[in-house]
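Practice problem: predict the structure.
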Amino acid sequence: MMMEKMVDWGLRVYGNTFKRVRPAHRVFHKLTATVLVPVFEKVMRFATIEQDPLWFRVRLLTGSYEPETVKLVKQHVKAGMTVLDIGANVGYYSKLFSKLVGDQGQVISFEPHPMTFKVLSENVSPPGNVRAIEAAISDKNGKSEFFDFLVDSGGSSLRFDAERRREQWDRLTDEEIIPKIVNNTTVARYSVTTRTVDSVLQELGVKTVDFIKMDIEGAEIHAISGMGTTLKNSPHLQMVMELNPRSLQSFGLDANAAFAQLKKVGFDHISLIDEKTNFMYLEDPHTLADLERSLLDGLGRVNILCKMGG
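Answer:
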């Protein structure tokens, strides 16, 4: 929490000083991105993606990204557990899970983006209690196109949304220095392997899962469809899942449809994780509709906690 406050303060001071003077902003940004961050990466033994926004890299390195979810994870993930990190990116949560489950536990991390997967593999090596798998989790095994089209690596998806890309880029002010925008990066397409959770766990000989973190840009419900056996074998499963209405729309879903599917497979309690880790149960359709509307207006997203077992 102290680190989070320090980073917030630093970014706020930066926004009120260097960022307001374009030449100084460019110099400070370049110095931080090319010198300070790489040094910090070596010290922390944790790499980030050079093309990602600087604020995102800084938050990952300082452990101040999604502090409310990190706090929840520390409360619920215990030694000896089996944890799935679906949409692991560079391993921010995988490293945390690894520490929490200890030598008797295991973490299975999935990341389909080939370049991001290389960084993830480096961040979770040497081999220990984390197994990194280069695959997109879905409802079937096969191959699919995978799109890197937003300003950060975490926004890559099995669906390309040109309108969302345009809206995101338009909303970024001239004050921001975003590498992909500065370099006019085009949409990158990759052919990736898709796997179901059930098929992977069967191969690994894993029957029960204790905790899942899933952030796969709207493909979450498809992934749920491919883990039926795992869910049946894991009656006390808890899952942190990203709720991103705009991403869900690219898969032909809205929040109501997503929640209906979650409840159908046994997630009886679904709650919003807010900045104070106070849970607001999303049982009222009006509450869910209001949340969805506000997120769509701001191209926003939140994390939700889903619990099995009543």
